[in-house]
Design goal:
The chain is an alpha/beta fold. Helix content is 34%, strand content 13%. The strands form three sheets. Strands 9-8-7-10-11 form a five-stranded parallel β-sheet. The protein has a four-stranded parallel β-sheet with strand order 4-3-5-6, sandwiched between helices. A two-stranded antiparallel ribbon has the order 1-2.
Length: 359
């Protein structure tokens, strides 16, 4: 296997303030994961807002993430059409350089439900070929109030983040923070719905990921484990682990085990496609490597009775997850897909400073 490249983000940087000192004593109050920009913009009523991007999970503090979750709950509970004033008169660029169903659908519908205009753009822009990404970013910032960007290398994302409006990472080869933020909301929601549960936080939750440990979802899950103080166990074949520098900073939050051991005490079983987008492999090699790493009924039966199953989709049924499991009683996959809509709406409201418009 070709060695996985190191993290494109400076290790240990990018953490926002959490209201308390970092777990290891770091001061995370001002450092960012991307070039800092002093310029801001005018928000509702002429308020001056500092530009905030969401390029990785720790661009949020823990308190800010829970604020977004509370906002998402209110948005989800409201009747359709009741928040069409929130982004009225505003536009958000949604740039998708990779194929997408859930990202395109959830952002476009969500922006429209908030009263904004989703400017949906595919790879026809040829950013980086027809013109520098930074030039396109400056132009779009003259038209739009925020930019959602789904792309390949993180270098492209960082160049887009030179725009003077908020930029949201909607997936790169190195991470999928928006997906994982939404998944954290789904986990909390699922356990709150269980009889007798009063869980309102992710601390002490145990998540087991089964499959390709190099996936961008795993890399963002590792970041989430640190931010939300839960434990992540990654079960993957030898040679299919995240970058060593990212593992090194996770401390006691992440361990690596065999798949059966990983799920025995898991609250959440998570999997993703074996063929990570942008890192395709020969089908024969893939099947030989991952044939024993399917989340099936036998594996799930080892987990505690309350454990739930997540998959960020699209799923290759009977490869990384069996049809019986994805359609079974433990699956929260469809709630997970729906919650992309609600949490991303809340994230946009937070970054644009209009959360107070949501009752």
């Amino acid at each position: 296997m070709v060695p996985y490249p190191p993290s494109p983000f400076p290790t240990g940087e990018g953490e926002a303030a959490s209201g308390t000192p970092g777990r290891y004593g770091e001061d995370h109050s001002v450092r960012m994961s991307h070039p800092s920009h002093a310029e801001g913009r005018r928000g509702p009523g002429g308020r001056f807002l500092t530009k905030r991007d969401f390029l990785k999970l720790t661009d949020l503090s823990r308190d800010e993430a829970y604020t977004i979750f509370d906002l998402a709950r209110r948005l989800k509970a409201a009747s359709k059409g009741s928040h069409s004033h929130v982004l009225a008169g505003r536009a958000v660029a949604v740039i998708l350089e990779k194929p997408s169903l859930r990202t395109r659908g959830s952002y476009n519908v969500g922006i429209a439900q908030l009263g904004g205009y989703p400017l949906s753009i595919g790879d026809e822009m040829q950013l980086g070929a027809r013109e520098p990404i930074r030039d396109g970013a400056r132009v779009l910032a003259r038209y739009c109030d925020a930019i959602v960007y789904r792309t390949f290398g993180t270098d492209r994302l960082l160049e887009m983040a030179t725009a003077p409006v908020p930029v949201i990472n909607a997936l790169t080869d190195d991470g999928q923070p928006g997906q994982i933020l939404c998944d954290m909301f789904t986990i909390i929601e699922a356990f709150q719905a269980m009889e007798g549960s009063n869980r309102r936080a992710l601390a002490d939750c145990r998540v087991a990921f089964i499959g390709n440990g190099t996936a961008n979802t795993v890399r963002s899950l590792m970041e989430a484990a640190r931010l939300f103080d839960f434990h992540l166990t990654v079960a993957s074949p030898e040679g299919y682990r995240p970058p060593a520098d990212e593992i090194a900073v996770t401390g006691e939050h992440v361990t690596f085990r065999s798949s059966l051991t990983a799920v025995r005490d898991a609250d959440v079983i998570y999997t993703d496609v074996w063929r990570d987008m942008g890192r395709e492999m020969d089908p024969a090699v893939m099947r030989a490597t991952f044939s024993d790493w399917t989340v099936d009924t036998q594996l799930v039966s080892v987990a505690p009775p309350h454990a739930i199953v997540l998959h960020c989709l699209p799923a290759h049924r009977d490869e990384e997850i069996s049809d019986a499991v994805i359609e079974g009683p433990r699956s929260r996959v469809w709630d997970q897909a729906e919650n992309r809509l609600h949490v991303q709406k809340a994230l946009l409201c937070f970054l644009l400073g209009v959360g107070d418009r949501v009752p």
